[in-house]
Automatic annotation (TrEMBL):
Pfam families the record matches: HTH_1, LysR_substrate
Domain of life of the native organism: Bacteria
Protein name: LysR family transcriptional regulator
Family: Belongs to the LysR transcriptional regulatory family.
Keywords (A to Z) from UniProt: DNA-binding, Transcription, Transcription regulation
Presence of keyword Transcription: yes
Gene Ontology terms: biological process: DNA-templated transcription
The species this protein was found in: Cystobacter ferrugineus
Residues covered by the HTH lysR-type domain: 1-63
Length: 296
């Protein structure tokens, strides 16, 4: 016997009624009336020529034939539900992009721009990981990353995103800031460092300041923490141009006298050279590579 499409709703009503052993509860689950559920069941019984339920004053109970059909219907619905869930999960996985990037860049540069990406690609879901350690691009791991370096990593394709520069900044309320009029005066302030390969010694050399005794009072492993230390008046910090923008824009930090020193490194979008990017990941790469020329 071929399963006709007009039997589907009747089977769904029957399966729910069989599971609940109650037409009213099945009706509530299916957003129908109890009489509609009863109608579907009677229609199925008429088509099959057997009684599926025994009706009695306390409610209904399955007949032997009803139990047989209920087991088959329940198994079939569970199988279809599993397949449909798998198809839905596979689609969601295709539309998910896993990104590993730098915490400082994410907070100040990437996140303010992400609404623009979402507007252009509303179906794509992003997982953003800001682990400090270099992430391995293994199966099941991130699709791509944004790294800071010279642009050469074994096994990775690297696209140049943007360069950067370093200059000193401090809170406008930092004690002694009003006496800073030239680059040499910055050395009179307490200094904050991070673990970047270019630091205060490099900057003072670029500023042609010689022999200054530097009070590097605080060192943070994360650039964002170093900037926040400066916001709270701990001292002056060397800020990366791309990361300092929101701090300068809202006045939490001000730029101090002295040159802007180009960094020896830049930002790169990277992904495994041997792995073809999925369309969702390719869409993100194409989008993010256009962002350096766009305001946040």
């Amino acid at each position: 016997m071929t399963l006709r499409t007009d039997w589907i709703s009747a089977l769904a009503a029957f399966e729910s009624a069989a599971r609940h052993q109650n037409f009213a509860h099945a009706a509530e689950e299916l957003h129908l009336t109890a009489s509609a559920v009863s109608h579907h069941v009677r229609k199925l019984e008429a088509q099959l020529g057997v009684a599926l339920f025994q009706r009695h004053a306390r409610g209904v109970s399955l007949t032997a034939e009803g139990r047989q059909l209920a087991d088959a219907a329940s198994s079939a619905i569970a199988s279809m539900d599993d397949v449909m869930r798998g198809l839905r999960d596979a689609r969601e996985e295709r539309d998910r992009v896993r990104i590993t990037t730098l915490h400082s860049l994410t907070y100040t540069w990437l996140v303010p721009r992400l609404p623009r990406f979402t507007a252009a690609h509303p179906h794509i879901r992003l997982n953003v990981d800001t682990e400090v350690a270099l992430t391995r691009f293994e199966e099941g791991g991130p699709d791509l990353g944004i790294r800071y370096g010279q642009g050469h990593w074994p096994g990775l394709t690297a696209h140049h995103l943007m360069d950067d520069a370093l200059f000193p900044v401090a809170s406008p309320t930092l004690a002694g800031i009003h006496g800073v009029h030239e680059a040499a005066d910055v050395a009179k302030l307490p200094l904050i460092s991070d673990l970047s390969l270019q630091g205060w010694q490099d900057w003072f050399r670029a500023a042609d300041v010689r022999g200054a005794r530097l009070d590097e009072r605080y060192t943070f492993s994360d650039t964002t923490d170093a900037l926040n230390g400066a916001v709270h008046g701990l001292g002056a910090v060397l800020a990366r141009e791309q990361i300092a923008v929101p701090y300068l824009a809202d006045g939490r930090l001000v730029r101090l006298p002295g040159p802007s020193m180009p960094t020896r490194f830049g930002y790169y979008v990277v992904y495994p050279a041997h792995r073809r990017l999925r369309p969702a990941a390719r869409a993100f790469v194409d989008w993010v590579l256009k962002q350096p020329g766009q305001p946040a």
